[in-house]
Write a structure and sequence with these properties.
Layout lengths: L13 E7 L6 H4 L9 H17 L6 E12 L8 E12 L2 E10 L2 E14 H11 L1
Antiparallel strand pairs: 1-3, 2-5, 3-4, 4-5
Amino acid sequence: MQEQPEPPFAPGLTARVELTVTEADTAQAVGSGDVPVLGTPRVLALAEAATVAATATRMPPGATTVGTRVELAHRAATPVGRTVVAQARLAEVDGRRLLFEVAVTDGDETVADGRVERALVDRQRFVERAARAS
């Protein structure tokens, strides 16, 4: 009987990333509104960065992950100068599909939460396919 290689990712992997909100991160700056608070696209980017960080140390050679689906509730405004923390936890692995639970907090307050789905892909093949599609 041939031994199966251990999968690179298992539920429970976690990572956190921080962002101190600047003018460049506001809804005004990113075009998602006209208020000077942390814009939803930046909240999403931060949550995704946490999912990438969670898999970074165990990524197989030649592989990467790409985002495929997001469910995110942006619950509270964060002004310039505050620091938010995004935490991601790998909740489910289904073949190449990785499902993360994410939360973005400002101190004790939850700024955003949701789920980010990523797919494990061959990096070179993915980039080549994308280049052909353009």
